[in-house]
Design brief:
Layout lengths: L16 H24 L13 E6 L2 E6 L2 E6 L2 E5 L5 H8 L6 E5 L3 H11 L3 E3 L8 H7 L3 E4 L22 H5 L1
Length: 176
């Protein structure tokens, strides 16, 4: 209970003292780095950003990223995510310090939509069922990033009852 946080074990090793010292230094640096990533660079309690010394300032169409004192303006992307589920892709983007200008989601599961609304509120624009999306609508949105991962239970080799593209639910009726 009274052990220090960054204490190396006192195992005997047949390696040279110089080698042992390098290993101890590397291990200590790794422990300190991992602790500082978790403590200093986390934008919220729910996710960890592993990009060192990153400051993001969103400003309209662009966001400014500062890395080690250098400033880089980058365009904030318009994102469309089809088969979005609980919007885990949005969590991944924000944890990578990519703050979308607009985030459109295509999802029909009511429970997933409730989770989206609870977590992100008005920051998400719901497009509805993917079968209702048309080329002209996507062209008007002009997404910089388009995510998608259709249900594949009828195609998955893990499913012993899979029907392939002839299945009545899942990927078959959506695309074939």
């Amino acid at each position: 209970m009274g052990k220090p946080k960054f204490k190396l074990s006192q195992k005997k090793n047949s390696r040279s003292p110089a080698f042992q010292k390098r290993v101890e230094e590397r291990t200590l640096r790794r422990q300190v780095r991992n602790a500082s990533i978790k403590d200093d660079f986390s934008p919220s309690d729910r996710c960890v950003v592993a990009v060192p010394r990153l400051n993001v300032v969103p400003d309209g169409r662009y966001q400014q990223i500062s890395v080690d004192g250098q400033h880089f303006p980058i365009k904030r992307p318009v994102v469309v995510s089809i088969f979005d589920g609980i919007s885990a892709r949005l969590v991944a983007l924000t944890s990578l310090a990519i703050i979308p200008r607009t985030y459109f989601t295509s999802e029909i599961d009511e429970y997933a939509l409730r989770i989206q609304r609870f977590n992100f509120g008005a920051n998400i624009h719901v497009l509805g069922d993917v079968r209702g999306l048309e080329y002209q609508m996507l062209r008007n949105i002009a997404p910089d990033i388009l995510f998608g991962g259709s249900p594949c239970s009828d195609l998955s080799s893990v499913n012993p009852l899979r029907k392939g593209i002839e299945g009545k639910v899942g990927t078959g009726p959506l695309f074939f």
